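A reminder from the course coordinator: this example appears on the midterm review sheet, so study it carefully.

Given structure:
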């Protein structure tokens, strides 16, 4: 998954299935989040990327 913020930076995440849910890990940034469904994972990705970009 690729996520672009308002500054046009690209943050790449690797998504995998794990224990009945999903995990997203940053390829070159220290971001990790999880969700029971893909919809929950996407919502969590948006939240954690927003927090990361804010610093």
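Designed residues:
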């Amino acid at each position: 998954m690729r996520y672009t913020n308002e500054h046009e930076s690209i943050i790449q995440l690797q998504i995998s299935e794990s224990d009945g849910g999903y995990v997203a890990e940053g390829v070159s940034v220290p971001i990790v989040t999880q969700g029971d469904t893909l919809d929950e994972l996407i919502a969590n990705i948006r939240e954690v990327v927003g927090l990361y970009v804010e610093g």
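The CA atoms of residues 21 and 36 lie 4 Å apart. The chain has one helix and four strands.
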